[in-house]
Amino acid sequence: MAEAIFAGGCFWCTEAVFGQLQGVSGVESGYLGGHVVDPTYKQVCGGDTGHAEAIRITFDESVISYADLLDIFFATHDPTQLNRQGGDIGTQYRSAIFPLNDAQRAEAQAGITRAQPDWPAPIVTTIEGPATWYPAEDYHQEYWAGEGQRNPYCLAVIPPKLAKLKKGFANRLAS
Questions:
Q1: Residues 115, 59, 76, 171, CA torsion sign
Q2: Closest Cα to residue 139, out of 2, 37, 50, 12?
Q3: How far apart are CA 145 and CA 123, in angstroms?
Q4: Which own/partner pairs from 102-105 qualify as long-range (CB within 8 Å, at least 24 positions apart)?
């Protein structure tokens, strides 16, 4: 099994997307890229810790590649918005890739290059790290599958992301 770490705005929203894919055995919400040890959701949301809301994806490379995950990442959030996704504003909502090795770092740069023609503005996604991963509190895990489907924010933001996923990557969806 391999891991990938992406930040693309609210982790509830990105977790919902990547949890739908063949070859993905787990998606964990968390924080990284900041200067506070073991931050809380409240601290990160305050925007003062430097952390991004992110997801750590565990996947089977024989089923789905890191490059495929990057393509899905760029197609299901707006990588041209600096330090925001929609109404979520602040560095904690930045678009960032946290490669775990040199091969992922090179593939992340290739992914940005590959995705740029699909966007009318420059991609501002950063490639960061290494950084310490801090799992988010338990109530954030698998949020869409539980509380999220009753949360008005999630109901406004997640279904359009899932529609993009189904339209562009139907062959990658778990059954």
A1: positive
A2: 12
A3: 30
A4: 103/66, 104/4, 104/66
- Whether the full predicted model's pTM is greater than 0.90, yes or no, is yes
Place of tokens 């990057």: 70
2-172 CATH, one of 3.30.1330.60, 3.40.630.30, 3.30.1060.10, 2.40.240.20: 3.30.1060.10
For residue 16, pLDDT beyond 90:
yes
H/E segment holding residue 32 = strand 24-32
Nearest-CA neighbor of 116 among 62, 66, 75? 75
Question: Exposed, middle or buried by CB within 10 Å (0-12, 13-18, 19+), for 35?
Answer: exposed
Q: Is 10 a residue of the active site?
A: yes
β 88-89/24-32 pair status: unpaired
Residues 66 and 73: their CA atoms lie apart, in Å, by 10
Please state which of the ranges 35-44, 90-99, 147-156 shows the lowest mean pLDDT: 147-156
Catalytic residue among 10, 13, 45, 154: 10
